[in-house]
Design brief:
Pfam families: EF-G_D2, EFG_C, EFG_III, GTP_EFTU. This is Ribosome-releasing factor 2, mitochondrial. One of its GO terms (molecular function) is GTPase activity. This protein is an alpha+beta fold and about 800 residues long. The protein folds into five domains: about 350 residues, Rossmann fold (3-Layer(aba) Sandwich), CATH 3.40.50.300; about 110 residues, Beta Barrel (Elongation Factor Tu (Ef-tu), domain 3), CATH 2.40.30.10; about 70 residues, Elongation Factor G (Translational Gtpase), domain 3 (Alpha-Beta Plaits, 2-Layer Sandwich), CATH 3.30.70; about 130 residues, 2-Layer Sandwich (Ribosomal Protein S5, domain 2), CATH 3.30.230; about 120 residues, Alpha-Beta Plaits, CATH 3.30.70.240. It is about 30% helix and about 30% strand. It contains 22 helices and 39 strands. The strands form eight sheets. An eight-stranded antiparallel sheet has the order 18-17-23-14-15-22-19-20. A seven-stranded mixed sheet has the order 2-3-1-4-5-11-6, with helices on both faces. Strands 25, 26, 27, 28 and 29 form a five-stranded antiparallel sheet that branches. A hairpin with a 2-residue loop joins strand 12 and strand 13. The longest helix has 19 residues. The protein is globular and about 100 Å long. The N and C termini lie far apart (about 60 Å). The chain binds guanosine-5'-triphosphate (GTP). The site of guanosine-5'-triphosphate has 24 residues, from helix 4.
């Protein structure tokens, strides 16, 4: 067996001879490990570095938790020949969920990247997490993707997190295709899900397949395959080959399932009609041929590609990945309909505050790459994932990080295969890979060639959401302090939604993050992966502080002697609350800083005229940087309980310098103190995170759950059922085809289906502090029949009574 595989390896081009030898060693190791990853496939993928960029797809899989992203990806890897055996989420042996914590919990935490070949194309695929606590993982992946596959659960339809990731993809204008998974489950509703896509996601779903249900030998109705509208054939998946073999039967009116042919004719005609509405070429063809059946599969495919690339519609497919049904046509659709890097608009990058440039993929000599993810690997150290937008990166190349203004050296370039890697010599525009050896690069930084003169070139960074939970972390003993510090530095570099700071009162490290699960995973990683000996405190809510008085002007003079030297600066600023409707989640900690109209004078000069036309010892940009960093320090700790200050508009009006005495440190300290004093004058108050909560439940529990939410939980009900705002976005006159559901189910299945249809969704805003442990409360209120999803909506002012309770509790100590 080994011999056979070796001979297969040597079949590849001689330039890959060396890698082949490495590969042989790997294969031997793989066989021993019984992981059966076919490393020889990697030769295919790395040789595809020479592939035309038009045959590359950088895509992500996005969905609500548990929709089946990892299950589907594992099938893709198997059918692409990447793995011999299909990994299973429930058995904890998937390639994509490789972290210990992921396998134990059966969930995706980090977005794993993998490269594989399919029909002469290279697919760089990122499997993203569905849980709301890891939304940042989705955000940073979507930022660098060209297209996405949205997976929907055929029973649950469009769920809350589906809407969130859909909105994220909308924000980056990422073209999408959709796959309705779990068609084998009782109560699966393909047509219902298609309709929900329309009114909950505000998109135009174009059905390209319909499910085929058959009676099995026990008389049960089971999902067996699909009808492909384009080729008018029934696809049946062979169970014995794990779905590798697909039997194709042309569909005609003789097909043994009654009504299937007629439904297909209806669906195909509707697809052509919708495409004619969107695309003038298709309209011309349709007018010319008059009969939808005369339009070839090729013509429909080309039209679908055009409308998907323009973001006008979303082709919809279906399957049951767990049963190995439906995955290969989805892989074909990735190639046929999702964009290559060349099909995407060139990204813009800023050169300065008022100058930007287009990054042209064809500019081979000008490197521009975005670091979108950093991970710590115990064997390889820190690995920085990059997407190259123009130019190329070679092994050992010298780079420049335009954010940190630091030189960086590439030690190794690697192609990722989930937790496994293969070294590659270079990477060209349009591709994704990981770099080993970068010391100061974080998520969101832009990398250029070291000799490039565009030292301030910056691609749009990634929005980092505000943390809402925090907990203290302490080394168990003095000898554990350094390992804890190192481990914290590494988890921080990996995860931009995690924050670590030292509480000046207690001297403890405080880590803050996006949710209870998020911090639990960090704790698990610190204790088990980094093996630090540390104690973690109780998880607490990260409140905020603000000034509530209309407008406060304040001037502060900083004048000290530091190590025998005089340091001095004076700042005048004005603070005022941001408008009521501001969510308090923007960058700069939910505040807005304005330095544009600031007047700079230098008091060390003789005349007023000289002072105002000062030629500065410090360049203006350095003064601005010192002011921003000082303001960030001041905003870190509010005067009430030391929580971050938020929702303020801070305008620096003037700064008075005193020649060489006004160092950068003096400016920072001065503005920081000016801000703290101003907030103290402004009647400070406490704020709390407000969550957007969506609860899906059957009608019988509606009263109890609503009563509970609006009572002690202080919730505000926004509405029941569908998200009307997205419904309003779409043209109600456009006809969307959705097949009837489900035509072949037994009466017991039908009653379950009816119950599912009568479910309601409550949308509410509820303070996070009242939602702790809500899953068990909801379980007991509804007998375990309801589910909920929540995410941060905004930061809102607390009532005086609530604030007093929090102050009392916090002052009671940790
Ligand atoms: N019946 C059925 N179950 C499925 C199907 N696909 C996935 N599942 C099951 O659904 C559960 C979740 O599957 P995953 O693939 O982990 O879902 P995911 O979307 O990757 O989950 P997260 O990454 O945690 O968000 C597992 O128990 C799967 O076995 C399917 O087609 N049919």
């Amino acid at each position: 067996m080994i011999k056979n595989r070796f001979s297969k390896l040597y079949y590849f081009k001689s330039s890959y001879h060396f890698r082949s030898i490495l590969c042989n060693v790997n294969i031997y190791r793989t066989i021993i490990n019984e992981r059966y990853i076919l490393k020889c496939q990697r030769l295919y993928s790395s040789s595809s570095n020479d592939y035309s960029i038009t045959k590359t797809r950088n895509i992500g899989i996005i969905a609500h938790i548990d929709a089946g992203k990892t299950t589907t990806t594992e099938r893709m890897l198997h059918y692409a020949g990447f793995t011999r055996r299909i990994g299973d989420v429930d058995d904890g042996d998937t390639v994509m969920d490789y972290m210990k914590q992921e396998r134990e919990r059966g969930i995706t935490i980090t977005s794993a990247a993998i490269t594989f070949g399919w029909k002469d194309h290279r697919i760089n695929l990122i499997d993203t997490p569905g849980h709301v606590d890891f939304t940042i993982e989705v955000e940073r992946s979507i930022r660098v993707l060209d297209g996405a596959v949205t997976i929907l659960d055929a029973v649950s339809g469009v769920e809350a997190q589906t809407q969130t990731v859909w909105d994220q993809a909308d924000r980056y204008e990422v073209p999408r295709i959709a796959y309705v998974n779990k068609m084998d489950r009782t109560g699966a509703g393909f047509g219902r899900t298609v309709n929900e896509m329309r009114y909950k996601l505000g998109t135009m779903p174009l059905v390209c397949q319909i499910p085929v249900m058959k009676k099995d030998n026990k008389g049960n109705t089971v999902f067996s395959g699909v009808v492909d509208f384009l080729n008018m054939e029934v696809l049946d998946w062979d169970k014995d080959s794990n779905g590798s073999i697909i039997n194709k039967t042309p569909l005609s009116d003789k097909y043994p399932i009654s009504g299937l042919f007629e439904e297909t004719l209806k669906g195909r005609a509707s697809l052509i009609e919708s495409l004619s509405d969107l695309d003038s070429e298709m309209l011309d063809t349709f007018l010319e041929l008059e009969d939808p059946m005369k339009i070839t599969a090729e013509t429909i495919k080309n039209t679908l590609r055009r409308v998907v690339l323009k973001g006008q519609a979303v082709p919809v497919f279906c399957g049951a990945s767990f049963r190995n049904i439906g995955v290969q046509p989805l892989m074909d659709a990735i190639i046929d309909y999702l964009p290559s890097p060349l099909d995407r608009p060139a990204p813009m990058a800023s050169l300065s505050s008022n100058e930007s440039v287009k990054i042209d993929l064809k500019e081979n000599d000008k490197l521009c790459a975005l670091a979108f993810k950093v991970i710590y690997d115990s064997k390889r150290g820190l690995m920085v994932f990059v997407r190259v937008y123009s130019g190329r990166i070679d092994n050992r190349m010298l780079l420049f990080n335009t954010k940190t203004q630091c030189k960086e050296r590439v030690n190794k370039l690697v192609q990722m295969y989930a937790d496994d890697v293969e070294e590659i010599p270079s990477i060209t525009a349009g591709n994704i890979c990981a770099i080993v050896g970068l010391k100061n690069t974080r998520t969101g930084d832009t990398l250029i060639r070291f000799d490039d003169t565009r030292k301030n070139l910056k691609l749009q960074s990634i929005e980092i959401p505000a943390p809402v939970f925090f907990q203290a972390v302490e080394a168990a003993g003095i000898s554990d302090e350094k390992p804890l510090d190192d481990a914290l530095k590494n988890v921080l570099r990996e995860d931009p939604s995690l924050h670590v700071y030292v509480d000046p009162d207690s001297g403890q490290n405080l880590i803050s993050g996006m949710g209870e699960l998020h911090l639990e995973i960090v704790k698990d990683r610190l204790l088990n992966d980094f093996r630090v000996n540390a104690k973690l405190g109780k998880m607490r809510i990260s409140y905020r502080e603000t000034a509530t008085v209309g407008k406060i002007d304040h001037t502060y003079l900083y004048d000290r002697e530091v190590m025998g030297k005089r340091v001095k600066a004076q700042v005048s600023l004005t603070i005022s609350p941001l408008p009521e409707n501001d969510l308090g989640l923007s960058e700069e900690g939910g505040n807005r800083v304005m330095l544009e109209q600031m007047i700079i004078t230098d008091d060390s000069l003789d005349t007023k005229e000289q002072q105002e036309n000062v030629s500065l010892l410090l360049p203006k940009t350095e003064i601005e940087n010192a002011l921003r960093s000082g303001l960030m320090t001041g905003l870190y700790r509010g005067p009430i309980l030391g929580f971050p200050i938020t929702k303020l508009l801070i305008k620096v009006n003037s700064i008075k310098l005193f020649g060489a005495e006004s160092t950068k440190a003096a400016i920072s300290t001065c503005v920081s103190q000016a801000l703290v004093d101003a907030v103290k004058k402004g009647n400070p108050a406490l704020l709390e995170p407000l969550m957007k909560v969506d609860i899906e439940l059957t009608e019988e529990y509606l009263g109890d759950v609503l009563g509970d939410l609006t009572g002690t939980r202080r919730g505000m009900i926004l509405g029941l059922d569908a998200a009307k705002s997205t419904f309003d976005k779409i043209d109600q006159n456009i006809n969307i085809y959705a097949p009837p559901d489900p035509t072949y189910i037994s009466s017991s299945e039908r009653s379950e289906h009816t119950v599912l249809k009568s479910k309601k969704v409550i949308h509410a805003h509820v303070p996070l502090s009242t939602m702790l442990g809500y899953s068990s409360a909801l379980r007991s209120l509804t007998g375990g029949t309801a589910s909920f999803d929540m995410r941060v909506h905004s930061i809102g002012l607390m009532s005086d009574d609530q604030a007093k309770n929090v102050i009392r509790e916090m002052q009671g100590g940790y």
